[in-house]
Amino acid sequence: MDTMEIVIIAILCIAVGVALIALALHMNAKRKQAQSTNQPQSAAQSESVEQSQALSADTSQQQQQTQQAQQPQKQPQTQSTQPNAAATEHGSQPQEPESIASRLTRLKAKLGSSANPLGKALFNILTQDNLSEEDWEDVEDTLLLADVGAEASEQLVEELRRDARIHGERDPQAVRDMLKERLLDIVGRDTDRSLVALREDAGQPSVIIMVGVNGTGKTTTAGKLARLFVAQHKQVVLGAADTFRAAAADQLVTWGERSGVPVVRSEKDGADPASVAFDAARTAQESHADVLIIDTAGRLQNKANLMDELGKIRRVVEKTTPVEEVLLVLDATTGQNGMMQAKVFAEAIGITGVVLTKLDGSAKGGIVVNVQRELGVPVKLVGLGEGPDDLAPFDPQSFVEGMLA
Ligand SMILES: Nc1nc2c(ncn2[C@@H]2O[C@H](COP(=O)(O)OP(=O)(O)OP(=O)(O)O)[C@@H](O)[C@H]2O)c(=O)[nH]1
Ligand SMILES: [Mg+2]
């Protein structure tokens, strides 16, 4: 082999080596490219799956809207907001609602720390030696001041006097226990306060209509209640049947966005509330929701007007699904005045439960007793503030312990 042949073989070897290196580099580049395009694809895919799941509750509404868009002669009456999409758009996600156990602990602490005159005053009088007739009158006055109501106050004093005679207790702990037992009796320790919507059976949405005088907290409570159901893994639809002003529906939409719950509303001020309620019932039915919560207006001139409007809402909803729960929202700070208005609502539509709002702050807890006596329905929920999770099921034990804390 001469020098020339050796040189040619060496050149060939180098050329093959270069070709192999080039091939390896090319393959590597292709693999990296494939990786970088695959990742966003799968993220986009999962996002679209999530979105389609989140919006699946609204499919029927969207179909309805599409149909309406194809038939412009039929003006769309209502529309359903898509909270998850809206929340993402604004860069915020619905917050996780607080658990019921944690709410009850807060209820107790809030009641204990609020300026509640009932427990403390009673306790101060009852731990004195030799209670005079005047002292017992003070006990009764204290109960009246705390909105317990005349009849119930009298009954409670009678029972406490009997207890005192029998036991002759002056030991603070014994007096506290005695008070607790009597208050629990009068508040109703075994009353069924469960919301019909939480009973497991259904197959169709449970409907809750919120009623009450304006400013008591209907819209706020509807929003908080939606979160309470979401915390229990229920699928919820909100219906904005307060059509007096667009702001009322906007307020409900904001609550819907906070919890990822769709809201059926009308864009028109002064639209027929019953027609919004009807559309909300149909949306809830078609999307297989567990619960439909309907917010109503509080500003109605007279009882006939009220009966007419609330009666119509109930009737149209019942074309789709039965109305199992009508919750009267009552502001605990309005005392006797609120009670009178509450009676009118109770007569106009019939109520199945009471939500007592604004029990935080300086509210007088005794109104629970009065409300239940006067209206003949249990207090089922209590509002403890303006926060999204400041609503808790009414628990007599926590309530009474909170008052006597
Ligand atoms: N402190 C406190 N404020 C509450 C509570 N519930 C509601 N509110 C406040 O009460 C005010 C009225 O509440 P809304 O929910 O708008 O009352 P509404 O009954 O829907 O009023 P209308 O729509 O005008 O009939 C708002 O400022 C709420 O934040 C509560 O439990 N505690
Ligand atoms: Mg309202």
From TrEMBL:
Show the ranges annotated as biased composition (Low complexity).
Answer: 39-83
Catalysed transformations (reactions): GTP + H2O = GDP + phosphate + H(+)
Question: Which Gene Ontology BP annotations are present?
Answer: SRP-dependent cotranslational protein targeting to membrane
Q: Which residues form the SRP54-type proteins GTP-binding domain?
A: 378-391
Naming one, the record's GO cellular component terms include: cytoplasm
One Pfam family of this protein, by short name? Answer: SRP54_N
The record lists the membrane-crossing segments as: 6-25
Q: Which residues bind GTP?
A: 212-219, 295-299, 357-360
**Region labeled Disordered — which residues?**
35-100
Q: Which SUPFAM superfamilies match?
A: beta-sandwich domain of Sec23/24, Domain of the SRP/SRP receptor G-proteins, P-loop containing nucleoside triphosphate hydrolases
**Keyword Nucleotide-binding belongs to the record:** yes
Q: What does this protein do?
A: Involved in targeting and insertion of nascent membrane proteins into the cytoplasmic membrane. Acts as a receptor for the complex formed by the signal recognition particle (SRP) and the ribosome-nascent chain (RNC).
Oligomer and partners: Part of the signal recognition particle protein translocation system, which is composed of SRP and FtsY.
NCBIfam families linked to this entry: ftsY (TIGR00064)
- Protein name (Swiss-Prot/TrEMBL): Signal recognition particle receptor FtsY
